[in-house]
Amino acid sequence: MKMKLAYYLFLRLEQCGATDTFGIPGDFARSLYAQQAAYGLNTIVCAHEPGCVFAADAYSRLRGLGAVVTTYGAGGLNMINPVAMAYAEHSPVVVISGAPAIAGRRENPVFHHLVKDYGSQLRVFAEVTCASASLTEATSAASEIDRVLDACLTYKRPGYIEIPLDMTAMEVPVPSPPAKCFTGPATNAAAVEEAAGEIIAALERAERPVLYAGVGIRRYGLVEAAMKIAENWGLPVVSSVMGKSAFPESHANHAGVYMGRMGEEQPREILENADLVLAAGVIFSDVNTGFWTARIDREKLIEMRDLDVGISHHTYRQVPLNGLVPYLATLLPQGKNRSRPAFQRKEIDSSVTLDSSRLTTMQLIQALRKLDQSRFSFLADVGDAWFAGLELDADIFMAPGYYATMGFAVPGAIGAGIADPTLRPIVLVGDGAFQMTGNELSTLVANRVNAIVIVLNNGYYKMLSALDGHRDYYNLPNWDYVKYAEALGCPGARARTGEQLYRALEMALAASQPFVIEAVLQKDDHAPVMQRIKDFFEQAAGKHP
Ligand SMILES: Cc1ncc(C[n+]2csc(CCOP(=O)(O)OP(=O)(O)O)c2C)c(N)n1
Ligand SMILES: [Mg+2]
Asked: What is the pTM for the complete model shown?
Protein backbone atom coordinates (compact mmCIF):
# COMPACT_ATOMS: atom_id res chain seq x y z
CA MET A 1 0.00 0.00 0.00
CA LYS A 2 1.19 3.54 -0.78
CA MET A 3 0.36 6.90 0.79
CA LYS A 4 1.65 10.48 0.66
CA LEU A 5 4.57 10.65 3.10
CA ALA A 6 3.12 13.65 4.96
CA TYR A 7 -0.31 12.02 5.19
CA TYR A 8 1.18 8.92 6.74
CA LEU A 9 2.96 11.08 9.32
CA PHE A 10 -0.23 13.00 10.16
CA LEU A 11 -2.21 9.77 10.44
CA ARG A 12 0.34 8.37 12.90
CA LEU A 13 0.29 11.60 14.91
CA GLU A 14 -3.48 11.37 15.22
CA GLN A 15 -3.27 7.73 16.24
CA CYS A 16 -0.85 8.74 19.00
CA GLY A 17 -3.17 11.46 20.35
CA ALA A 18 -1.79 14.56 18.57
CA THR A 19 -4.70 15.94 16.54
CA ASP A 20 -3.24 19.48 16.49
CA THR A 21 0.23 20.78 15.66
CA PHE A 22 2.01 23.98 16.67
CA GLY A 23 4.49 25.87 14.58
CA ILE A 24 5.45 28.70 12.26
CA PRO A 25 5.54 28.16 8.48
CA GLY A 26 8.57 28.94 6.34
CA ASP A 27 9.79 28.28 2.83
CA PHE A 28 11.30 24.86 3.64
CA ALA A 29 8.09 23.92 5.47
CA ARG A 30 5.64 25.30 2.90
CA SER A 31 4.90 21.90 1.48
CA LEU A 32 4.40 20.41 4.97
CA TYR A 33 1.94 23.18 5.82
CA ALA A 34 0.08 22.79 2.51
CA GLN A 35 -0.22 19.03 3.05
CA GLN A 36 -1.34 19.56 6.61
CA ALA A 37 -4.12 21.90 5.50
CA ALA A 38 -5.18 19.46 2.76
CA TYR A 39 -5.17 16.56 5.23
CA GLY A 40 -7.19 18.59 7.74
CA LEU A 41 -4.92 18.45 10.78
CA ASN A 42 -5.51 21.48 13.00
CA THR A 43 -2.59 23.93 12.67
CA ILE A 44 -1.84 26.44 15.40
CA VAL A 45 0.55 29.19 14.38
CA CYS A 46 2.28 30.78 17.37
CA ALA A 47 4.28 34.01 17.56
CA HIS A 48 7.74 32.54 18.12
CA GLU A 49 9.23 29.04 17.83
CA PRO A 50 10.01 28.60 21.55
CA GLY A 51 6.31 29.30 22.19
CA CYS A 52 5.35 26.57 19.70
CA VAL A 53 7.38 23.96 21.59
CA PHE A 54 6.22 25.09 25.05
CA ALA A 55 2.64 24.82 23.77
CA ALA A 56 3.28 21.35 22.31
CA ASP A 57 4.99 20.28 25.55
CA ALA A 58 1.95 21.22 27.66
CA TYR A 59 -0.31 19.56 25.06
CA SER A 60 1.80 16.42 25.30
CA ARG A 61 1.51 16.36 29.09
CA LEU A 62 -2.27 16.12 28.70
CA ARG A 63 -2.58 14.11 25.47
CA GLY A 64 0.50 11.86 25.53
CA LEU A 65 2.20 13.39 22.46
CA GLY A 66 2.74 16.91 21.13
CA ALA A 67 3.95 17.94 17.67
CA VAL A 68 5.56 21.02 16.16
CA VAL A 69 6.03 21.77 12.46
CA THR A 70 8.83 24.14 11.56
CA THR A 71 11.01 25.45 8.81
CA TYR A 72 14.68 24.62 8.59
CA GLY A 73 17.48 26.41 10.47
CA ALA A 74 15.97 29.71 11.55
CA GLY A 75 12.84 27.89 12.70
CA GLY A 76 14.17 24.52 13.81
CA LEU A 77 17.23 25.78 15.64
CA ASN A 78 15.05 28.37 17.38
CA MET A 79 13.40 25.44 19.16
CA ILE A 80 16.42 23.90 20.82
CA ASN A 81 16.00 25.20 24.38
CA PRO A 82 12.35 24.18 24.83
CA VAL A 83 13.03 20.81 23.16
CA ALA A 84 15.89 20.33 25.63
CA MET A 85 13.40 21.10 28.38
CA ALA A 86 10.96 18.52 26.99
CA TYR A 87 13.81 15.99 27.01
CA ALA A 88 14.72 16.76 30.63
CA GLU A 89 11.06 16.75 31.69
CA HIS A 90 10.19 13.46 29.95
CA SER A 91 7.64 15.10 27.68
CA PRO A 92 7.33 13.54 24.23
CA VAL A 93 7.23 16.29 21.61
CA VAL A 94 8.01 15.42 18.01
CA VAL A 95 9.70 18.13 15.96
CA ILE A 96 8.87 17.93 12.27
CA SER A 97 11.16 20.12 10.22
CA GLY A 98 11.16 20.89 6.52
CA ALA A 99 14.56 20.78 4.80
CA PRO A 100 16.09 21.69 1.42
CA ALA A 101 14.88 19.54 -1.46
CA ILE A 102 17.14 16.61 -2.22
CA ALA A 103 17.03 17.34 -5.94
CA GLY A 104 18.61 20.77 -5.52
CA ARG A 105 21.39 19.77 -3.11
CA ARG A 106 24.91 20.72 -4.20
CA GLU A 107 28.17 19.52 -2.82
CA ASN A 108 29.19 22.81 -1.26
CA PRO A 109 25.93 24.12 0.16
CA VAL A 110 25.41 27.83 0.49
CA PHE A 111 21.66 27.77 1.12
CA HIS A 112 19.93 30.27 3.38
CA HIS A 113 18.88 28.73 6.75
CA LEU A 114 21.75 26.25 6.51
CA VAL A 115 24.61 26.24 9.02
CA LYS A 116 27.51 23.94 8.05
CA ASP A 117 26.13 21.12 5.95
CA TYR A 118 22.92 19.19 5.31
CA GLY A 119 23.48 17.14 8.45
CA SER A 120 23.96 20.06 10.88
CA GLN A 121 20.40 20.40 12.14
CA LEU A 122 19.94 16.65 12.43
CA ARG A 123 23.09 16.41 14.56
CA VAL A 124 22.04 19.30 16.79
CA PHE A 125 18.67 17.69 17.43
CA ALA A 126 20.22 14.29 18.09
CA GLU A 127 21.59 15.80 21.31
CA VAL A 128 18.15 16.82 22.69
CA THR A 129 15.96 13.97 21.41
CA CYS A 130 15.77 10.22 21.95
CA ALA A 131 15.42 9.41 18.24
CA SER A 132 15.86 11.32 15.01
CA ALA A 133 15.51 10.69 11.30
CA SER A 134 15.96 12.46 7.98
CA LEU A 135 13.46 11.06 5.50
CA THR A 136 15.56 11.03 2.36
CA GLU A 137 14.39 7.65 1.00
CA ALA A 138 10.88 6.65 -0.01
CA THR A 139 11.26 3.00 0.96
CA SER A 140 12.25 3.58 4.58
CA ALA A 141 10.23 6.78 5.25
CA ALA A 142 7.22 5.10 6.92
CA SER A 143 9.28 2.79 9.12
CA GLU A 144 11.52 5.72 10.13
CA ILE A 145 8.43 7.71 11.19
CA ASP A 146 7.21 4.73 13.20
CA ARG A 147 10.63 4.24 14.79
CA VAL A 148 10.86 7.86 15.99
CA LEU A 149 7.27 8.03 17.28
CA ASP A 150 7.60 4.70 19.06
CA ALA A 151 10.79 5.86 20.79
CA CYS A 152 9.10 9.13 21.85
CA LEU A 153 6.20 7.25 23.42
CA THR A 154 8.34 4.52 24.93
CA TYR A 155 10.94 6.77 26.55
CA LYS A 156 8.72 9.85 26.98
CA ARG A 157 11.26 12.08 25.29
CA PRO A 158 11.19 14.33 22.22
CA GLY A 159 12.00 13.09 18.72
CA TYR A 160 13.03 14.74 15.45
CA ILE A 161 11.85 14.06 11.89
CA GLU A 162 13.33 16.03 8.99
CA ILE A 163 11.54 16.00 5.64
CA PRO A 164 13.12 17.47 2.50
CA LEU A 165 10.74 19.66 0.47
CA ASP A 166 10.49 17.25 -2.43
CA MET A 167 9.76 14.22 -0.22
CA THR A 168 6.68 15.66 1.56
CA ALA A 169 4.03 14.81 -0.98
CA MET A 170 5.79 11.75 -2.41
CA GLU A 171 3.79 8.50 -2.48
CA VAL A 172 5.71 6.09 -0.25
CA PRO A 173 5.10 2.45 0.74
CA VAL A 174 3.38 2.16 4.14
CA PRO A 175 2.77 -0.93 6.28
CA SER A 176 -0.63 -2.56 6.01
CA PRO A 177 -2.04 -3.19 8.55
CA PRO A 178 -0.33 -0.29 10.39
CA ALA A 179 2.27 -1.09 13.02
CA LYS A 180 1.42 -0.57 16.72
CA CYS A 181 1.99 3.07 17.78
CA PHE A 182 3.52 2.21 21.10
CA THR A 183 5.37 -1.04 21.61
CA GLY A 184 6.52 0.07 25.08
CA PRO A 185 9.70 -0.56 27.05
CA ALA A 186 11.19 -4.06 27.13
CA THR A 187 9.23 -6.13 29.66
CA ASN A 188 9.98 -9.50 31.22
CA ALA A 189 6.67 -10.79 32.61
CA ALA A 190 8.34 -13.21 35.04
CA ALA A 191 10.53 -10.43 36.39
CA VAL A 192 7.49 -8.16 36.80
CA GLU A 193 5.74 -10.89 38.79
CA GLU A 194 8.75 -11.57 40.98
CA ALA A 195 9.40 -7.86 41.66
CA ALA A 196 5.71 -7.31 42.44
CA GLY A 197 5.82 -10.25 44.87
CA GLU A 198 8.75 -8.70 46.69
CA ILE A 199 7.04 -5.29 46.80
CA ILE A 200 3.80 -6.78 48.14
CA ALA A 201 5.69 -8.68 50.85
CA ALA A 202 7.43 -5.43 51.86
CA LEU A 203 4.08 -3.61 51.93
CA GLU A 204 2.57 -6.36 54.11
CA ARG A 205 5.48 -6.03 56.58
CA ALA A 206 5.57 -2.25 56.68
CA GLU A 207 3.96 -0.27 59.50
CA ARG A 208 4.23 3.16 57.87
CA PRO A 209 4.41 2.73 54.07
CA VAL A 210 4.11 5.75 51.76
CA LEU A 211 3.57 6.17 48.02
CA TYR A 212 6.01 8.77 46.63
CA ALA A 213 4.46 9.94 43.37
CA GLY A 214 6.64 11.17 40.53
CA VAL A 215 6.10 12.57 37.09
CA GLY A 216 6.38 9.11 35.48
CA ILE A 217 2.89 8.26 36.78
CA ARG A 218 1.34 10.92 34.58
CA ARG A 219 3.65 10.45 31.62
CA TYR A 220 2.81 6.73 31.35
CA GLY A 221 -0.91 7.29 32.00
CA LEU A 222 -0.85 5.48 35.34
CA VAL A 223 -2.90 7.91 37.46
CA GLU A 224 -5.83 5.51 37.93
CA ALA A 225 -3.55 2.59 38.77
CA ALA A 226 -1.61 4.70 41.29
CA MET A 227 -4.88 5.75 42.95
CA LYS A 228 -5.91 2.09 43.21
CA ILE A 229 -2.61 1.14 44.90
CA ALA A 230 -2.95 4.03 47.38
CA GLU A 231 -6.57 3.12 48.14
CA ASN A 232 -6.04 -0.66 48.36
CA TRP A 233 -3.19 -0.26 50.81
CA GLY A 234 -4.33 2.89 52.62
CA LEU A 235 -1.13 4.67 51.65
CA PRO A 236 -0.58 8.36 52.24
CA VAL A 237 0.73 9.86 48.99
CA VAL A 238 3.47 12.44 48.83
CA SER A 239 4.39 13.95 45.46
CA SER A 240 7.76 15.07 44.21
CA VAL A 241 8.07 18.66 42.97
CA MET A 242 8.20 17.56 39.33
CA GLY A 243 5.47 15.06 40.06
CA LYS A 244 3.12 17.67 41.51
CA SER A 245 -0.40 16.71 40.50
CA ALA A 246 0.82 13.44 38.91
CA PHE A 247 -1.35 12.04 41.71
CA PRO A 248 -4.57 14.12 41.92
CA GLU A 249 -4.24 16.49 44.86
CA SER A 250 -7.98 16.50 45.52
CA HIS A 251 -7.65 12.82 46.47
CA ALA A 252 -8.09 12.16 50.21
CA ASN A 253 -4.80 10.21 50.43
CA HIS A 254 -2.71 13.06 49.05
CA ALA A 255 -0.59 14.62 51.78
CA GLY A 256 1.46 17.23 49.93
CA VAL A 257 4.62 17.86 47.95
CA TYR A 258 7.96 16.69 49.35
CA MET A 259 10.98 18.90 48.76
CA GLY A 260 13.41 17.97 51.55
CA ARG A 261 14.12 20.91 53.90
CA MET A 262 12.72 23.35 51.30
CA GLY A 263 9.23 21.88 51.42
CA GLU A 264 6.31 21.70 53.83
CA GLU A 265 6.58 19.98 57.16
CA GLN A 266 3.72 17.47 56.87
CA PRO A 267 4.81 15.62 53.72
CA ARG A 268 8.39 15.70 55.02
CA GLU A 269 7.41 14.05 58.29
CA ILE A 270 5.30 11.44 56.53
CA LEU A 271 8.00 10.53 54.03
CA GLU A 272 11.03 10.69 56.27
CA ASN A 273 9.32 8.72 59.08
CA ALA A 274 8.04 6.04 56.71
CA ASP A 275 9.45 2.55 57.04
CA LEU A 276 8.78 1.89 53.33
CA VAL A 277 8.85 4.43 50.50
CA LEU A 278 7.27 3.17 47.28
CA ALA A 279 8.56 5.69 44.72
CA ALA A 280 6.83 5.65 41.33
CA GLY A 281 8.43 7.55 38.45
CA VAL A 282 10.32 9.95 40.74
CA ILE A 283 13.38 11.67 39.30
CA PHE A 284 15.85 12.37 42.07
CA SER A 285 17.01 15.76 40.75
CA ASP A 286 18.45 18.65 42.80
CA VAL A 287 15.13 20.51 42.87
CA ASN A 288 13.04 17.40 43.64
CA THR A 289 15.32 16.62 46.57
CA GLY A 290 15.25 20.23 47.85
CA PHE A 291 18.86 20.79 46.80
CA TRP A 292 19.90 17.39 48.15
CA THR A 293 18.32 17.96 51.57
CA ALA A 294 15.93 15.00 51.13
CA ARG A 295 16.47 12.19 53.63
CA ILE A 296 15.27 8.81 52.36
CA ASP A 297 17.21 5.71 53.42
CA ARG A 298 18.19 3.46 50.52
CA GLU A 299 17.13 0.38 52.57
CA LYS A 300 13.56 1.69 52.86
CA LEU A 301 13.26 2.70 49.23
CA ILE A 302 11.57 0.85 46.39
CA GLU A 303 12.26 2.89 43.29
CA MET A 304 9.96 2.06 40.37
CA ARG A 305 11.67 3.80 37.45
CA ASP A 306 10.63 4.16 33.79
CA LEU A 307 12.50 1.02 32.69
CA ASP A 308 13.42 -0.95 35.82
CA VAL A 309 12.84 -1.18 39.56
CA GLY A 310 15.39 -0.84 42.36
CA ILE A 311 14.53 -2.49 45.67
CA SER A 312 16.90 -1.58 48.46
CA HIS A 313 20.31 -2.48 46.96
CA HIS A 314 19.21 -4.66 44.03
CA THR A 315 17.58 -4.02 40.64
CA TYR A 316 15.11 -5.92 38.47
CA ARG A 317 15.78 -5.16 34.81
CA GLN A 318 12.98 -5.10 32.21
CA VAL A 319 10.40 -4.24 34.84
CA PRO A 320 9.12 -0.91 33.51
CA LEU A 321 6.83 1.43 35.38
CA ASN A 322 3.98 0.91 32.90
CA GLY A 323 4.14 -2.86 33.44
CA LEU A 324 4.65 -2.90 37.20
CA VAL A 325 2.23 -0.23 38.45
CA PRO A 326 -0.92 -1.65 36.74
CA TYR A 327 0.06 -5.13 37.95
CA LEU A 328 0.50 -3.93 41.54
CA ALA A 329 -2.89 -2.25 41.34
CA THR A 330 -4.52 -5.68 40.97
CA LEU A 331 -2.93 -7.10 44.14
CA LEU A 332 -4.79 -6.66 47.42
CA PRO A 333 -3.47 -6.82 51.01
CA GLN A 334 -3.94 -10.19 52.67
CA GLY A 335 -2.70 -9.49 56.19
CA LYS A 336 -3.36 -6.22 57.97
CA ASN A 337 -6.60 -4.38 57.53
CA ARG A 338 -5.52 -1.20 55.79
CA SER A 339 -7.68 1.82 56.42
CA ARG A 340 -7.36 5.40 55.24
CA PRO A 341 -4.12 7.07 56.25
CA ALA A 342 -4.42 9.34 59.28
CA PHE A 343 -3.17 12.86 58.63
CA GLN A 344 -4.65 16.31 58.56
CA ARG A 345 -5.00 17.82 55.12
CA LYS A 346 -3.76 21.38 54.74
CA GLU A 347 -6.66 23.76 55.28
CA ILE A 348 -7.18 27.14 53.70
CA ASP A 349 -5.74 29.68 56.13
CA SER A 350 -8.74 31.85 56.95
CA SER A 351 -6.55 34.44 58.70
CA VAL A 352 -5.35 35.64 55.27
CA THR A 353 -8.04 37.97 53.96
CA LEU A 354 -8.29 39.92 50.74
CA ASP A 355 -8.43 43.38 52.31
CA SER A 356 -7.27 46.82 51.27
CA SER A 357 -3.69 46.40 52.45
CA ARG A 358 -0.82 45.88 50.03
CA LEU A 359 -1.13 42.65 48.03
CA THR A 360 1.03 39.74 49.25
CA THR A 361 2.03 36.45 47.63
CA MET A 362 0.20 34.65 50.45
CA GLN A 363 -3.04 36.47 49.55
CA LEU A 364 -2.59 35.43 45.93
CA ILE A 365 -2.07 31.81 46.99
CA GLN A 366 -5.15 31.83 49.23
CA ALA A 367 -7.31 33.44 46.54
CA LEU A 368 -6.32 30.69 44.11
CA ARG A 369 -6.78 27.93 46.70
CA LYS A 370 -10.40 29.04 47.12
CA LEU A 371 -11.21 28.37 43.45
CA ASP A 372 -12.77 25.07 42.47
CA GLN A 373 -9.50 23.44 41.38
CA SER A 374 -11.27 20.80 39.27
CA ARG A 375 -12.26 23.43 36.66
CA PHE A 376 -8.71 24.55 35.88
CA SER A 377 -5.31 23.48 34.67
CA PHE A 378 -2.51 25.41 36.38
CA LEU A 379 0.68 26.36 34.60
CA ALA A 380 3.55 28.00 36.44
CA ASP A 381 6.75 29.60 35.22
CA VAL A 382 10.09 29.69 37.00
CA GLY A 383 10.50 31.84 40.13
CA ASP A 384 7.97 32.71 42.79
CA ALA A 385 5.17 31.90 40.36
CA TRP A 386 6.22 28.26 40.57
CA PHE A 387 6.71 28.28 44.34
CA ALA A 388 3.32 29.95 44.84
CA GLY A 389 1.85 27.27 42.58
CA LEU A 390 3.32 24.52 44.75
CA GLU A 391 0.95 25.68 47.54
CA LEU A 392 -2.16 24.84 45.48
CA ASP A 393 -4.04 21.54 45.66
CA ALA A 394 -4.21 21.16 41.90
CA ASP A 395 -5.17 18.06 39.92
CA ILE A 396 -3.47 19.41 36.80
CA PHE A 397 -0.29 21.40 37.35
CA MET A 398 2.48 21.97 34.83
CA ALA A 399 5.82 23.66 35.33
CA PRO A 400 9.40 23.32 34.16
CA GLY A 401 10.00 21.46 37.42
CA TYR A 402 13.38 20.00 36.48
CA TYR A 403 14.90 21.99 33.62
CA ALA A 404 13.66 25.32 35.03
CA THR A 405 13.73 27.38 31.86
CA MET A 406 11.81 30.65 31.89
CA GLY A 407 9.06 31.30 29.37
CA PHE A 408 7.04 28.07 29.54
CA ALA A 409 3.76 29.06 31.16
CA VAL A 410 2.05 31.58 28.82
CA PRO A 411 2.62 29.56 25.62
CA GLY A 412 2.06 26.36 27.62
CA ALA A 413 -1.50 27.58 28.22
CA ILE A 414 -2.15 27.48 24.46
CA GLY A 415 -1.33 23.78 24.39
CA ALA A 416 -3.16 23.01 27.63
CA GLY A 417 -6.32 24.83 26.53
CA ILE A 418 -6.38 23.12 23.14
CA ALA A 419 -5.53 19.67 24.51
CA ASP A 420 -8.37 19.82 27.04
CA PRO A 421 -10.92 22.57 26.39
CA THR A 422 -12.91 21.55 29.49
CA LEU A 423 -10.18 22.98 31.75
CA ARG A 424 -9.53 26.72 31.83
CA PRO A 425 -5.78 27.38 32.08
CA ILE A 426 -4.59 29.59 34.93
CA VAL A 427 -1.06 30.84 34.35
CA LEU A 428 1.26 32.04 37.10
CA VAL A 429 4.20 33.88 35.58
CA GLY A 430 6.91 36.22 36.89
CA ASP A 431 7.43 39.55 35.18
CA GLY A 432 10.86 38.41 33.92
CA ALA A 433 9.46 35.26 32.34
CA PHE A 434 6.48 37.17 30.94
CA GLN A 435 8.86 39.57 29.23
CA MET A 436 10.29 36.55 27.36
CA THR A 437 7.18 34.84 25.96
CA GLY A 438 4.21 37.00 27.04
CA ASN A 439 3.63 37.93 23.38
CA GLU A 440 2.00 34.49 22.98
CA LEU A 441 -1.03 36.13 24.65
CA SER A 442 -1.94 37.04 21.11
CA THR A 443 -1.91 33.32 20.14
CA LEU A 444 -4.24 32.65 23.08
CA VAL A 445 -6.56 35.38 21.75
CA ALA A 446 -6.38 34.09 18.16
CA ASN A 447 -7.20 30.54 19.23
CA ARG A 448 -9.87 31.55 21.76
CA VAL A 449 -8.10 29.88 24.68
CA ASN A 450 -9.51 31.88 27.57
CA ALA A 451 -6.58 31.48 29.94
CA ILE A 452 -6.29 33.63 33.05
CA VAL A 453 -2.71 34.94 33.07
CA ILE A 454 -1.48 36.25 36.43
CA VAL A 455 1.74 38.25 36.10
CA LEU A 456 3.62 38.46 39.40
CA ASN A 457 5.06 41.93 38.96
CA ASN A 458 7.86 42.47 41.47
CA GLY A 459 10.07 44.41 39.04
CA TYR A 460 12.81 41.95 39.73
CA TYR A 461 14.55 38.66 38.99
CA LYS A 462 13.65 37.71 42.55
CA MET A 463 14.56 34.02 42.29
CA LEU A 464 18.13 35.01 41.51
CA SER A 465 18.31 37.47 44.38
CA ALA A 466 17.10 34.72 46.73
CA LEU A 467 20.13 32.64 45.74
CA ASP A 468 22.61 35.47 45.38
CA GLY A 469 21.58 38.60 47.28
CA HIS A 470 20.62 41.90 45.71
CA ARG A 471 22.26 42.93 42.44
CA ASP A 472 21.30 45.98 40.41
CA TYR A 473 21.22 43.87 37.27
CA TYR A 474 18.33 41.85 38.73
CA ASN A 475 16.04 44.89 38.37
CA LEU A 476 13.57 44.66 35.48
CA PRO A 477 12.10 47.35 33.26
CA ASN A 478 8.63 48.15 34.50
CA TRP A 479 6.02 47.31 31.87
CA ASP A 480 2.37 48.27 32.00
CA TYR A 481 1.11 44.68 31.72
CA VAL A 482 -2.54 45.70 31.50
CA LYS A 483 -1.94 48.03 28.56
CA TYR A 484 0.31 45.41 26.98
CA ALA A 485 -2.47 42.83 27.24
CA GLU A 486 -5.02 45.26 25.82
CA ALA A 487 -2.74 45.99 22.90
CA LEU A 488 -2.74 42.26 22.09
CA GLY A 489 -6.51 42.05 22.30
CA CYS A 490 -7.26 40.80 25.76
CA PRO A 491 -8.60 42.67 28.75
CA GLY A 492 -6.74 42.95 32.02
CA ALA A 493 -6.77 44.45 35.49
CA ARG A 494 -4.10 45.51 37.95
CA ALA A 495 -4.23 44.41 41.59
CA ARG A 496 -2.24 46.29 44.21
CA THR A 497 -4.34 45.09 47.15
CA GLY A 498 -6.11 41.90 48.16
CA GLU A 499 -9.46 43.52 47.45
CA GLN A 500 -8.38 44.48 43.95
CA LEU A 501 -7.14 40.94 43.37
CA TYR A 502 -10.51 39.56 44.41
CA ARG A 503 -12.28 41.88 41.95
CA ALA A 504 -9.79 41.16 39.18
CA LEU A 505 -10.30 37.43 39.64
CA GLU A 506 -14.07 37.90 39.47
CA MET A 507 -13.69 39.80 36.20
CA ALA A 508 -11.31 37.15 34.85
CA LEU A 509 -13.67 34.31 35.79
CA ALA A 510 -16.57 36.08 34.06
CA ALA A 511 -14.54 36.76 30.90
CA SER A 512 -14.92 34.46 27.93
CA GLN A 513 -11.57 35.50 26.44
CA PRO A 514 -8.06 35.45 27.92
CA PHE A 515 -7.62 37.85 30.82
CA VAL A 516 -4.45 39.27 32.35
CA ILE A 517 -4.15 40.11 36.04
CA GLU A 518 -1.12 42.16 36.95
CA ALA A 519 -0.44 41.30 40.60
CA VAL A 520 1.81 44.03 42.01
CA LEU A 521 4.08 42.41 44.60
CA GLN A 522 7.06 43.50 46.66
CA LYS A 523 10.65 42.39 46.11
CA ASP A 524 11.00 41.05 49.66
CA ASP A 525 7.69 39.15 49.81
CA HIS A 526 8.18 35.44 49.10
CA ALA A 527 6.11 32.29 48.75
CA PRO A 528 6.97 29.88 51.59
CA VAL A 529 9.26 27.64 49.47
CA MET A 530 11.15 30.66 48.09
CA GLN A 531 11.65 31.96 51.64
CA ARG A 532 13.08 28.60 52.75
CA ILE A 533 15.37 28.46 49.70
CA LYS A 534 16.58 32.00 50.42
CA ASP A 535 17.26 31.13 54.09
CA PHE A 536 19.03 27.92 53.06
CA PHE A 537 21.34 29.60 50.56
CA GLU A 538 22.08 32.50 52.89
CA GLN A 539 22.99 30.05 55.62
CA ALA A 540 25.16 27.97 53.27
CA ALA A 541 27.02 31.05 52.05
CA GLY A 542 27.44 32.52 55.54
CA LYS A 543 26.35 35.81 54.08
CA HIS A 544 26.13 36.79 50.42
CA PRO A 545 29.44 38.24 49.14
C1 LIG B 1 15.54 31.10 29.67
C2 LIG B 1 16.14 31.37 31.00
N3 LIG B 1 17.02 32.39 31.15
C4 LIG B 1 17.55 32.66 32.36
C5 LIG B 1 17.24 31.92 33.46
C6 LIG B 1 17.86 32.23 34.82
N7 LIG B 1 16.81 32.67 35.77
C8 LIG B 1 16.25 31.82 36.66
S9 LIG B 1 15.08 32.53 37.58
C10 LIG B 1 15.32 34.03 36.84
C11 LIG B 1 14.50 35.21 37.25
C12 LIG B 1 13.05 35.02 37.06
O13 LIG B 1 12.43 36.27 37.17
P14 LIG B 1 10.86 36.43 37.19
O15 LIG B 1 10.27 35.70 36.06
O16 LIG B 1 10.53 37.87 37.30
O17 LIG B 1 10.41 35.64 38.51
P18 LIG B 1 10.77 36.01 40.04
O19 LIG B 1 12.08 35.38 40.30
O20 LIG B 1 10.83 37.50 40.15
O21 LIG B 1 9.70 35.40 40.85
C22 LIG B 1 16.31 33.95 35.85
C23 LIG B 1 16.76 35.09 35.01
C24 LIG B 1 16.33 30.84 33.26
N25 LIG B 1 15.97 30.02 34.25
N26 LIG B 1 15.79 30.62 32.05
MG1 LIG C 1 10.03 39.01 38.93
From this structure: 0.96
Strand pairing partners for 3? 172
For residue 72, CA distances in Å to 75, 164, 329, 448, 512 come to 6, 10, 46, 29, 37
435 three-state secondary structure? helix
Alpha-carbon dihedral sign for residues 219, 225, 231, 232: negative
Using the mean position of ligand 2's atoms as its centre, give its distance from the Cα of residue 264 in Å. Answer: 23
Would the CB of 179 count as within 6 Å of ligand 1? Answer: no
Tell how far the Cα of 386 is from the centroid of ligand 1, in angstroms. Answer: 11
β-strand partners of 518 = 455, 494
Q: Which atom of ligand 1 lies nearest, measured to the CA of 384?
A: 21
Strand partners, 376: 424
Q: What is the DSSP letter of 488?
A: T
Give yes or no for a contact between 98 and 32, defined as CB atoms under 8 angstroms apart: yes
Side-chain half-sphere of 128: how many Cα atoms within 13 Å?
21
Give the mean pLDDT of 230-236: 95
**Residue nearest to ligand 1 atom 13, measured at CA:** 461
Measured distance CA(488)–CA(29) in Å, rounded: 27
Pocket test for ligand 1, best of 360, 381, 382 (most atoms within 8 A of CB): 382
- Whether residue 404 is predicted with pLDDT greater than 60 in this model: the reply is yes
* Spatial CA neighbour of 507 closest among 517, 499, 520: 517
Q: How far from 15 is each of 68, 150, 179, CA to CA, in Å?
A: 16, 12, 11
- CA–CA separation, 393 and 254 (whole Å): 9
DSSP letter assigned to residue 44: E
Report the nearest-CA residue for atom 4 of ligand 1: 406
d(CA 66, CA 52) in angstroms, rounded, equals: 10
d(CA 329, CA 229): 5
Say whether pLDDT at 362 is over 80.
yes
Verify whether ligand 1 is closer than 6 Å to residue 249 (CB atom): no
Q: Which residues pair with 44 in a beta bridge?
A: 22
Residue 404 CB less than 6 A away from ligand 1: yes
Indicate the SS3 state at residue 416: helix
Phi and psi torsions of 43, nearest 5°: -115, 120
Q: What are phi and psi of 371, to 5 degrees?
A: -70, 155
According to the model, what pLDDT value does residue 315 have?
96
Point out the ligand nearest to the CA of residue 525. 1
The answer on pLDDT for 539 being more than 90 is no
Dist CA 465 CA 32 (whole Å): 45
What does DSSP assign to residue 102? S
| Residue range 10-33: mean pLDDT, rounded | 97
Vertex 176: Cα angle to 174 and 178 (nearest 5): 85
Q: Residue 284: which residues within 8 A CB-CB, separation 6 or more?
A: 294
Atom number of ligand 1 nearest to Cα 435: 15
